[in-house]
Amino acid sequence: MITLGNLLCGVIACYYAANGNLGVAALFICLGIFLDFFDGLAARLLDVASPLGKELDSLADVVTSGVAPGLILFGLLHRSLYVESIWLLPLALLMPLFAAYRLAKFNLDTRQSHSFLGLPTPANALIWVGIALWGAMPYSTTLAVVLIIISLITDVLMVSEMPMFSLKVNFKDMGWKANGVQYLFLIGCAAIIAVSRQWYAVSLIILWYIILSAITRRKDAE
């Protein structure tokens, strides 16, 4: 029921995004991601985890964290692009395709029990949630091109093999050595929120997560 609630939120988000109400769509995506976080936790606590639940979770995520944010990006571009640049709009619809591919790949990959390979679809969705909720965002073709570039990068990251650190804190050892990356991430998040005090801070936090994961990967490789 929790997973189906996630799917329902995604469907409602798609409806509002398709009708141009991007702020409401973003809020329903947030609610769907919240339910997505707790359905696995509830399944483990109640000892009812099953392959069916895993597949259903992925199907719900395709809508909530794939189709809905893709429609938000489509709406943002539609407001910003001039008529001669409308041909760029279909690029927004690549997002659901990459999200679906990632989720199918995730279901077959057994290497991601404690960390992630590639950008998780909910994290990608939150980038567009933050932008959609930022009511003061200026609309221009230049900004639209920037959004397209960001979307193409995150699309590729979703299906990439780039390691993404886990946000889980090691409660058995709360020291910096065991949780340094997580602490550094939280410090960065606090700084972003304190400086921006705007909804786009959500987007910046996910970008900070990507950058820190890349830095961590480089240090591990060295």
- On the 0 to 100 scale, the average pLDDT is 87
Query: Strand share of the residues?
Result: under 5%
Return the domain count. Answer: 1
| Radius of gyration, whole Å | 18 Å
The first-to-last residue Cα distance is 46 Å
Q: Total helix count?
A: 8
Report the sheet with the most strands, covering strand number, pairing sense and barrel closure: 2 strands, antiparallel
**Main structural class:** mainly alpha
Poorly predicted regions are none
Within the CATH hierarchy, at the fold level, what is the topology? Four Helix Bundle (Hemerythrin (Met), subunit A)
Order of helices and strands: HHHHEHHEHH
Strand order of the largest sheet: 1-2
Helix percent band: over 70%
- Per CATH, the class reads Mainly Alpha
What is the overall silhouette? Answer: globular
What is the total tally of β strands?
A: 2
Can you name the CATH architecture?
Answer: Up-down Bundle
Any overview of this molecule?
The chain is an all-alpha fold and 222 residues long. The chain has a single domain (2-162), classed as Up-down Bundle (Four Helix Bundle (Hemerythrin (Met), subunit A)). The protein is built from 8 helices and 2 strands, in the order ααααβααβαα. The protein has helices spanning 2-18, 22-45, 51-80, 94-108, 121-133, 141-158, 176-196, 201-221; strands at 116-117, 163-164. It has a two-stranded antiparallel sheet. The protein is globular, with a radius of gyration of 18 Å. The N and C termini lie far apart (46 Å). 35% of the residues are buried.
